[in-house]
Design a protein that fits this description.
With 45 residues, the protein is an all-alpha fold. Helices cover 96% and strands 0% of the residues. It is built from one helix and no strands. It starts with a helix and ends with a helix.
Length: 45
């Protein structure tokens, strides 16, 4: 029973870490997209 508890706790920790990483990548991608959009608008004008 203790082994199962340890495995569940480890899985929960890894899942939480992965969510934070994916969220950070999403923010970075969004910022890069905004930079590209801004550069395209500047080149257009």
């Amino acid at each position: 029973m203790r082994k199962i508890f340890v495995l569940v706790a480890a899985a929960a920790a890894l899942t939480t870490a992965a969510c934070n990483t994916v969220e950070g990548v999403g923010r970075d991608t969004q910022a890069a997209g905004q930079a590209v959009t801004g550069a395209a608008q500047d080149a257009k004008n």
